[in-house]
Design goal:
Elements (H helix, E strand, L loop, with lengths): L7 E4 L10 H13 L6 E4 L7 E2 L3 H6 L1 H12 L3 E5 L4 E2 L10 E3 L4 E4 L5 E5 L8 H10 L2 H7 L4 H17 L8 H13 L5 E4 L7 E2 L8 E4 L7 E6 L2 E7 L7 E5 L12
Parallel strand pairs: 1-2, 2-4, 3-5, 4-6, 8-9, 9-11
Antiparallel strand pairs: 1-12, 7-8, 10-11, 12-13, 13-14
Helix pairs in contact: 1-3
């Protein structure tokens, strides 16, 4: 099965720190393939970078190779859509020609095969009020404006250490599958999508819709194991690649994680 004939490819939560590391090289490998493909849409679902202030010259220089690779995909005829994540700020200020930056909220696309896909990073679909208030503050023009005046390398180092501390607590956090999926159900039912795609939670959901309509809820895995969520032949698949070698690539159907275990499913 060829990844390059899928109409929709989605990646999320890669959390890149350095453009020389393995994750960055695998992403560049993916983008090079996408630039020679028949893909209609390449969607970056947010938190591709562990931290990025797009209005700061330091980060524009740091991630220039990623931007150039995305521009090459755009030039090939593929629509590239980037939904800003909670680790990313002012991405619309990046000088990446043709890349559609969605700073907040839900974005909807229509595939040539007829499916309607709505998508969001996910943190605003299900989150607590304190988180939302903090998010508004750190993404505000005042805070991002002040941050642009700070030394980029210092800010980058500080943000990286903060992310490491936060991730160290992940093993102690309880994932509330029912509450997350309930919120995603409500979000999808309120919109026009057949399918809803989201990231942020680092959990590979692939669940039927609560209202039993055509479509489903799909989340994109983080890059603890590099992967792509691909829509092909009417369904979603997960494509894993642990190196650039073709024999290291595997396809798996996106199967239900939670709702297959619920009574009546």
């Amino acid at each position: 099965m060829s990844l390059w004939t899928a109409p929709l490819l989605v990646v999320s939560d890669i959390h890149l720190n350095h453009v020389e590391d393995n994750r960055s090289q695998l992403l560049l490998h993916l983008l090079e393939g996408a630039s020679r493909s028949e893909v209609e849409y390449l969607v970056l679902m947010g938190d591709i970078f562990d931290f990025c202030l797009g209005s700061h010259p330091y980060f524009q220089r740091k991630f220039d190779s990623i931007g150039k690779a995305l521009e090459k995909v755009v030039q090939s005829g593929t629509q590239v859509i980037y939904l800003e994540g909670n680790h990313e700020f002012k991405l619309a200020s990046l000088p990446w020609k043709g890349v559609q930056i969605i700073s907040e909220g839900t974005h909807v696309i229509h595939l040539k095969s007829g499916e309607t896909i709505q998508m969001a990073h996910g943190d605003l679909i299900y989150s607590h009020n304190m988180y939302r208030a903090f998010r508004r503050l750190v993404k505000s023009p005042l805070v991002t404006g002040v941050a642009r005046l700070l030394p980029g390398a210092w800010m980058d180092n500080l943000a990286t250490k903060g992310s490491e501390v936060s991730r160290a607590q992940d093993q102690y956090r309880q994932i509330e599958h029912e509450k997350i999926l309930g919120a995603v159900d409500a979000w999808l039912e309120a919109g026009p999508g057949d399918f809803g795609i989201f990231g942020h939670f680092h959990v590979p959901y692939a669940e039927p819709r609560r209202d039993r309509k055509k479509g489903g809820l799909f989340s994109v895995e983080c890059w603890d194991r590099p992967n792509v969520l691909a829509f092909k032949d009417g369904r979603f698949h997960r494509y894993y690649f642990d190196s650039k070698a073709a024999d290291a690539e595997t396809w798996q159907p996106a199967e239900p994680l939670v709702r297959k275990l619920l009574p009546g499913e």
